[in-house]
Design goal:
two-stranded antiparallel sheet; 2 domains; transmembrane helix; rod-shaped; transmembrane; mainly alpha; single chain; membrane; 7 helices; disordered C terminus
Length: about 325
């Protein structure tokens, strides 16, 4: 049953204060049912308008980009509204069936009361006619609700299919974009391999250059003491180590280079200095290597991994030794 409106309540109050209820006791029931039955028309129209709105959404919403959506969109919220609308229609159908049953029971109950008050026979016939019209109206409203229910199921099925198709399209787009992303990642991986090969080749070249520079450094270190002594030979030994002797006469030997008598002092001085320089170089190299190894060991104990050329990288997950 619908809630009694203010106008219906006013109409019932006027009817109760009138003399129409004194002649026929069925008049109150007929008038009450007719007053309540007027609200069903507006209620069914409200359900029809709500269903028409959902019908327009389902019929003119855009499924893909190739069609115009006419300003209508469909979401899962519309499914919730359709579910609530279906619940309203079900409740209204049950209420209308109850109203039809009440009207028929009233007609059946008052069929044998004509003999009690013959003077009010015309009034009773009018009340029965009103009840008959009421039962017919309620039956008509019930049929209208059945049509609305069938229409609602069709709209609900259409909205479900639209959302399902749209989800399939979104899934296809997602799969296509995922494939494009995978292709891009594969291309990046291929480029990384090319860069890695280039870096490997560059590292080999740098390593070869480093070996060459190391050899040149060793050669320079070996010849450094001898060069220094040879450059300072005239100052230290007061003579040239290699002298240029000119011919004394035309019959004598031609010009030639002659070793100085003090050349042995050059050899005796250069060789020890050369050995001392090499020894110092080897000592400093081994010392630097030991310090680097010790630094790595200390860093490993403290949970820090040293990376050459890149500073330090913290590794807090490594356990520290006491």
């Amino acid at each position: 049953m619908l809630n009694v409106s203010t106008s219906t309540r006013t109409t019932l109050d006027r009817f109760l204060t009138s003399e129409g209820t004194q002649c026929c006791d069925l008049a109150l029931h007929a008038h009450l049912l007719n007053a309540l039955g007027r609200n069903w028309t507006a209620y069914i129209e409200d359900l029809t308008v709500a269903l028409l709105e959902q019908d327009n959404k389902a019929s003119y919403c855009s499924i893909d980009k190739s069609r115009d959506n006419h300003g209508f969109t469909v979401t899962y919220h519309d499914l919730q509204e359709m579910h609530m609308l279906q619940a309203r229609i079900d409740r209204a159908s049950v209420a209308l069936e109850a109203c039809v049953e009440i009207g028929r029971k009233c007609l059946t109950h008052f069929e044998g009361d004509d003999e009690l008050t013959p003077a009010c026979s015309a009034s009773r016939q009018s009340c029965r006619a009103k009840l008959g019209v009421y039962v017919s109206d309620m039956a008509r409203h019930s049929v209208a609700l059945q049509r609305l229910d069938r229409r609602l199921k069709g709209i609900l099925d259409l909205i479900s299919r639209v959302l399902m198709f749209r989800n399939e399209v979104l899934l296809q787009n997602f799969n296509r974009h995922s494939g494009d992303t995978l292709d891009a990642l594969l291309a990046i991986n291929q480029q990384s391999r090319i860069h890695q090969a280039t870096l490997t080749q560059l590292f080999a070249t740098v390593q070869a250059d480093s070996v060459l520079l190391k050899i040149l450094g060793i050669v320079a270190t070996v010849y450094l003491p001898a060069s220094l002594v040879a450059a300072q030979s005239k100052t230290v030994f007061s003579s040239n180590l290699i002298q240029y002797v000119a011919a004394a006469s035309p019959t004598a030997e031609p010009q030639r280079l002659v070793l100085s008598p003090q050349f042995w002092t050059y050899v005796a001085t250069s060789l020890p200095l050369m050995g001392l320089t090499l020894a110092c170089t080897l000592f400093l190299d081994r010392r630097s290597r030991r310090q680097a190894a010790l630094g790595k060991a200390v860093a490993a104990d403290e949970g820090v991994v040293l990376s050459p050329g890149a500073g330090t990288a913290h590794a807090g997950a490594l356990p520290s030794h006491p």
